[in-house]
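Regression report. Comparing outputs from two consecutive submissions.

Submission 1:
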Amino acid sequence: MAAHADNLAAVRSSYEAFGRGDLDGALAMMDDAIVWHQAQGLTHGGVYHGLPAVRAAVFDPLDEQWWEDFDATPSEILGGDDHVVVIGRYTARAKGTGKPLDVPFAHVWKFADGKAVRFHQFTDTRGWVDALAP
């Protein structure tokens, strides 16, 4: 039961760090060899292997290329065994178009030995793509 509580605390801490712009803090709970499943309807959708690939393909472009004030705000964090599910909303403003982003997400994390080893993103990809499209 302690591991379950630790996983919930790690996930909560990660989203809080991301929300205050501390990317290193947000990524601290993730295993270096994490397998990251980005929603396939996104232009950068697909499966990424390892934290460096995830950082380069997913996190770095968020603020640098795509969005102003991007945030992933959890409304519920649910845990069971070695999984944690986060339900929330993405909000931002697209850099290129100025259009707002406000779409729901569900994130499914799998933990092993105290680190997140797998991530699955489910989101309204149409809303995401429409906000970025000129």
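Submission 2:
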Amino acid sequence: MARGGFLASTMIGFTRALARAMVSEQIARQAGLLQSLDPRVRVIGLFTMVLAAVLSRKIAVVGALFFVAVTIAILSKVGVGMLVKRVWLVVLGFTGVIALPAIFLTPGDPVAAFAGGPLRITVQGVETATLLIARVETAVTFTSLLVLCTPWTHVLKALRAFRLPQEAVMMLAMTHRYIFLLVETAGQMFESRQSRTVGLVKGAAGRRIAARSAGVLLSKSIELSNEVYLAMQSRGFRGEIRILSDFHMRSWDYLGLAAFLAAGSLSAWIGR
């Protein structure tokens, strides 16, 4: 917890969340490999790579796909340090906890035993855990590249181009927008509370403030959702999201799509 107490640490968390969102928007506007492709090509191409990573059963193939993902990230002006902090370490911590039991529970050739008991590490268990972690790391890296290098509205329009139901697209759009709106509102609430608080808020008092703020924030979100819905209806909204930019396929886009499909298909075939 930060030195300023519960309120200060909460405000720092909100600020960091908004800062990360701003960085993602800046990356999407840069001139890079993925940014130069049509959003529809990015969606279908990176989804193909994710599918190839999930279907591959060989660690070498998944490792090659991970190397491809890192190469695409560098060519798309996405910093490796950002991927390490925001993606790889988080995924490693989460997936590692899930994969850890497989090292001991998977039957096979023992590598090490503990106190001569039944608990032992096997070669097959290590391979299984490594494959699981490598798959998840690679798939999440490709997915993160799509989100970082493509404005969210373009992702949604590309999904509609592939006939995803407009209700699902609308839910994704509103959820994305409300997350940042609620984070900003919560930050303003905590900042207002902190400006009226003398000294540090500790223990039970901080938890009570957090619970009350969460209740007020929920009430505000419900009220705001009704107002937004009525405002959208009064302006002619009937369920379809429209943006001003149009998508146009060029020769470079067809080449990129062919490269993604070829790489994904070849990886899935070799790694089967």
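Expected: both submissions complete independently.
Actual: both completed, but the second showed a warning that disappeared on reload.
Relevant detail on submission 2: The longest helix spans residues 203-234.
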